[in-house]
Amino acid sequence: MQHRRLSFAYPEDFNPAWHRRLPELAAAANAVSMMMPHAEPFVAKSVRAAAEAFDTDNELLADEARVYVQQELEHHRQHQRFNEMVVAAYPKISRLDRFMGWTFDRLARRSLTFRLAFAAGFETVAYAGARWTDDRLHRLFDDAEPVASTLFLWHLAEEIEHKTVAFDVFRAHTCSVRFRTLRHLGGLASSAVLLALFTFLGTCSLLLAQRKFFSPRAHANLFMWSLSFIFEVMPLMAVSMLPSHHPRSLTDPSWLAQWLNHHDPETGEIPVWNSLGVDSPSASVLGAVAEASGLEADRVLDQASPLAEQPSGVTRVDDLFDLEELSRSVR
Ligand SMILES: [Fe+2]
Ligand SMILES: [Fe+2]
């Protein structure tokens, strides 16, 4: 796990209803985004408070928690910036924003044990979200605006890395096994209910503002997505209650997890999502291709775009580029 700084270059004429084919998906994702500047500092501060009190036995976990906090605060920053565009386009959403702020302020007064259980539950739901999305990448994100898609996919991809840390911090903090499962269940249920409630309210509010609320297709899609997500998240929630369970045994979704490897820490770039898979390979990807193919980096760049535009849905450097073909075309 590492803190990745990113810069998202939204087009000047960026439309916060960023999905022309599936406007209801943009509405639901924007509703989740509106919640992030409240939920993420809440879970990050809770985990940090517990980790700061750890003794040397938990030094490694405390280090992991520090990076976790940095990642969550980066998510918060990026969503805050994105949300400003959403609020400017749909000012009525600020009422819900204030209500979410009020709710998380109240939750912040609860005990640290509850807040950590909430954080562990929040991460279980986020991890389920990443798995659910990874299975439907093209169905959901083809034809969507690339920069907004990249924001949401990057966030989900990093959530995969959070599958153990909040859980471990909760367990380390709650040494007594007595009532631990019950507390965990309370946190998990509260986080799932709040996430569902705010996503529902935010989606309705945004669909109304976009004049899409009475679209039967929008409701049919939202219903099917919700149902399939319930089938994704419920087994994960159930299994996370087992005393012998540890989230490290869960199988990570492959595309999102590997895509993160293409982040370039120097430039803050990550290959931007488009309908064909990925586009705009970052400098680190180009460097790796140059090294693997024995070509000069600038010559790779000249040839990269047409090859990268081939339909792929891929992640690894050697999948991103057909190195043999690249070498043939350049030489
Ligand atoms: Fe996050
Ligand atoms: Fe997270």
Order of helices and strands: HHHHHHHHHHEEHHHH
Architecture per CATH nomenclature, i.e. the level-2 architecture of the largest domain: Orthogonal Bundle
Oligomeric grouping of the chains: single chain
Low-confidence stretches: 304-324, 326-331
* Total DSSP helices: 14
Number of domains: 2
- The beta-strand count equals 2
Please state roughly what percent of the residues sit in beta strands, choosing from under 5%, 5-15%, 15-25%, 25-35%, 35-45% or over 45%: under 5%
Share of helix among residues? Answer: 55-70%
Mean pLDDT: 84
Question: From the alpha-carbon coordinates, what is the Rg to the nearest angstrom?
Answer: 21 Å
What gap, in angstroms, lies between the N and C termini?
39 Å
**Distinct small molecules bound, one entry per kind:** fe (ii) ion
CATH fold category name of the largest domain = Ribonucleotide Reductase, subunit A
Largest sheet: 2 strands, antiparallel
Task: Please give the CATH class of the largest domain.
Answer: Mainly Alpha
Name the structural class.
mainly alpha
Provide the spatial order of strands within the biggest beta sheet. Answer: 1-2
